[in-house]
Amino acid sequence: MSAISIDGVSKKFRLQTDKAHSVKELVTRRDRSTDHDSFWALRDVSFEIPEGSMYALVGHNGSGKSTLLRCMAGIYRPTEGQVKVDGRISTLLELGAGFHPDLTGRENVYMNATILGMSKKQIDASFDEIVGFAGVEEFIDSPVKIYSSGMYVRLGFSVAVHVDPEILIVDEVIAVGDAEFQRKCFDHLYALRKKGVTIVVVTHGLSTVESMCDGAAWLDHGVLQLTGTGPEVVQAYLGKVNAAEREEREAADTESRAEGLGAKEDVTIAKVEFLDEDGFSSRVGFHRKPLTIRIWYEAVRPVPSPVFGIALYSSSNVHLTGTNTKIDAFGTPTIEGKGYVDLSMDALQLTPGDYELTVAISDEFIQHNFDRREREWRLTVREGDSATPEGLMDLRGHWSAGA
Amino acid sequence: MWSYRTLIVNLAQRDLKARYKKSFLGWAWSLINPATTLGIYTVVFGVFLGAVAPVAGNGRTQSFALYLFCALVAWNFFSGTVNISIQTFTSAGPLLTRTYFPPEAPMLAGLTTVAIQAVLEVGILFAFMIGFGNVSWTFVLVLPILFMLACFAFGIGLVFGLGNVRYRDVNYLVGIALQVLFYATPIVYSLDIVPAAWRRVLELNPLTAYTYSMRQAVYELALPTATNWLMMGVSAAVSLVVGWWIFGKYAPLVIEEL
Predict the structure, then answer these.
(1) Which residues of B touch chain A, with CB atoms under 8 Å apart?
(2) Domains of chain A, earliest start first
(3) ipTM > 0.85, yes or no
(4) Cβ–Cβ contacts within 10 Å for residue A322, how many?
């Protein structure tokens, strides 16, 4: 049973210009919707959101997520196709939408809750709960214009989730609150879902999508790319984002290299190698086996105590760790000409998977980067001889028991 | 629309509450404004230009100010409704693009606030009339007259409110149109002093029927003519039906531009 079914939905917007319409245009042009002054925010999008699920829409800014949410909420009428909604909808599309700055928190709660379809009696009954959840008891009789933005969000969120919706539509608004409130929000959303409420969220917090959402849809320039489980969609989306980023980096690198020809830096990264336990260069490392990262440099003039640094990223974009010769208190000597610096590990603590490496060489005060290559090297880690732990890291601790 | 009555009442309440927040005289302002207008017109037209009102229904009272007031109440209600409709649709934008509810709701809320103002003014008008001993059952007729006037003004307001989003010219145009209309309606003068040829033209203006009927019911204590009833009934029905239909059809499209 689906709570919302989206069937071939397209949405065309007229582009608004400053001087909207001249009188001449009004008189002469019969059909005012040519393709010049309009664009498609959504193109033939179809998918279903199952009842009682938590569903996420992901995509970069301007991909049509919010437009789709508004179509679901009935605020926008699709140009083509249709949205079928089965249940009472509550929306939280923007913080404190409908809050009147001059009215008190109390007055605004009543106002906002009525807009979302609550009766006076229902509001009376849950008023204390709403205010308590938002944590603004002290200020409830002050005009909301004196509220901090956090208080604003909290009160708006609190009203939206207490109207007892069957379907709750939430745009990227929770992110405004502090960490504690965000956790509270997600806890509450989770509780709502347990009660059978269908929740649709737009979010950039991909870990939320992975861990909390039953399903997700990925939009790109108004076109549906993929629907599936949270982790599936996030993986595919990240793959695309990473690829695009890499392209951008490469373009920037070529550019800076072209620029740099005239004024060459004192020292540059020549190449980076991974060496296995026998000292042979390899693209692959093994879990819990020795591995050495060798950074080759080329210095055109003497550089006193440069700092060599590396940073490791997982394929899902997590910055795992980073260190440099200064942090590890290794005094690099003055370098000149060609040479290398090694970072040797007795046992690789990464679990099997793909990783990316950023390498940089900077001056002794880490004020100036002579050379920095963002995630230019890729390291694949394979299973070693021992069993593989979960997650990305191997803690390599020692268990013991006592009584 | 009926299921949204709580929302309409709340929206109206919000606007009224917010309107006079932080002002010392508060609600008194809603009366000071019309009182000033009434005072100015009485002095300029009644004293300087020597306009004379007919004798009232009780056969004794003869007051230009009261004669003027009867028509002014109707005019204020009309112009107030048109103006608030234009304002409301734009100012309700942030709400309409973020939550779903029928766009007619804030418009009706706007109408409600103006209607409350009209009721206040009528109350004061009645109080004066009672003070002068000019009272009759015809006062009851004010109800249907103002009801039809509300429909008439609201239909126009809906269309202009809508038009103003795409063409801000509407706002300016309406400002001028209202000014012209004010003098094209027998408010500061009576229809009797207008030359016969012009009278024909003025009689085509539906507002003439409304102001004339108000004066009949409250000042002359007589019945409006059948022609007036017909004029009011038809203008109210046509305006409301056409306005509501256009609004219902185009408002969802216009909301995207708010």
Answers:
(1) 6-7, 10-11, 14, 17-18, 21-22, 94-101, 166-167, 252-253, 255-257
(2) 2-240 (3.40.50.300), 265-382 (2.70.50.60)
(3) no
(4) 13
Q: Tokens for A184, please give them.
A: 């509270």
**Residue B7 is nearest to which of A70, A91, A115, comparing CB atoms?**
A115
The amino acid present at A142, given as its one-letter code, is: S
A176 to chain B, any CB pair closer than 8 A? The answer is no
Contacts for A222 with CB less than 8 Å, ≥ 6 apart? A11, A40, A41, A42, A43, A45, A63, A64, A67
Contact A111 B14 (CB under 8 A): yes
pLDDT bin (cut points 50, 70, 90) of residue A17 is: low
Instruction: List Cβ neighbours of B139 (8 Å cut-off, separation of 6 or more).
Output: B126, B129, B217, B218
pLDDT at A307: 93
pTM score, two decimals? 0.73
Sorted by sequence, the CB contacts under 8 Å of residue B161 that are 6+ apart come out as B85, B86, B88, B89, B90, B107, B247
Mutation to test the A interface, candidates B13, B98, B253, most A Cβ within 10 Å: B98
Query: Does A32 contact chain B (CB < 8 Å)?
Result: no
Residue A378 backbone phi and psi in degrees, to 5: -120, 130
Q: How many other C-beta atoms lie within 10 A of the C-beta of residue B46?
A: 18
